[in-house]
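Weekly modeling sync, notes
Attendees: S.R. (lead), two postdocs, one rotation student

Agenda item 3: backlog of single-chain predictions. S.R. asked that every request posted to the team notebook include the full sequence so nobody has to chase files. The rotation student volunteered to paste the first one in as an example of the format we agreed on. Action items at the bottom.

Example entry:
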Amino acid sequence: MPPASRPRARTYDRHKSRAALRAQAEAIRSVVVPLDDAQLALPTRLGSWTVGELVAHLATCLDALQRFLAAPDDGQPARTLADWAAGTRTSAALIAEDAEERAAAGDPRRTFVASVEGALAVLDADYGPEQRLVYRRGAMLLDDYIVTRLVETVVHADDLADALKISDFPHDRHALASVCRLLADALAAQAPGGAVELRIPPFAVVQCVEGPRHTRGTPPNVVETAPLPWIRLATGRTTWAHAVDVAELTASGERSDLSSLLPVMG
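Predicted structure, as returned to the notebook:
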């Protein structure tokens, strides 16, 4: 028999993605603007970063839309969302250095507000589905790159909420769903197969890990968790053991331990 074909890449509605990024950016702005200097100096769970440096990085994440749209395009094949997710770990040192320099250069609150305005201008512009941009690791469709901005703003808004002890940050629902799906797909791409079913209700279900593929009835190996715990696991904000200990994750079946595959993004 011929080998099974790869599953088709997931698609994201371009209009919903734009609306979600707008809402997510506005939600972060509502938290950032009233921060005082003492709050900007608070530590975060991101190594040595302060809240001010985290806010500066969020500004960079949104500025990227305008900055990379202005970069010359050499016509190389567009990278996919899977390519982007797989390449995030190689940029960690450069990202940290940029955030520290940007936070030291000026008021990160004002910088972030300006970055939101720039991002909104891109979201409001009449770019078609074939519009490309060139980011650090190659070319990408603008629509796909906007989905990567959903990942950045959801993940780092959660970092911000953790540092400021905000228990109910108002993440946009579609943004949260998109990030859960992209990270679940990244895990399935890293460990393809059908032996384990990963469930993140109500947003995503994927099968992964080599072994017998489940087709009917209850799968023998099931992992289930909620959206934010999954995002924290997939990006290294928490560990498998901790998620199990605090009952944020359930895993059944002898092959259901995915800890060796996490995190899927740096």
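Discussion: group reviewed the output briefly. The chain has a mean pLDDT of 91.
Action items: rotation student to repeat for the remaining queue; S.R. to check formatting next week.
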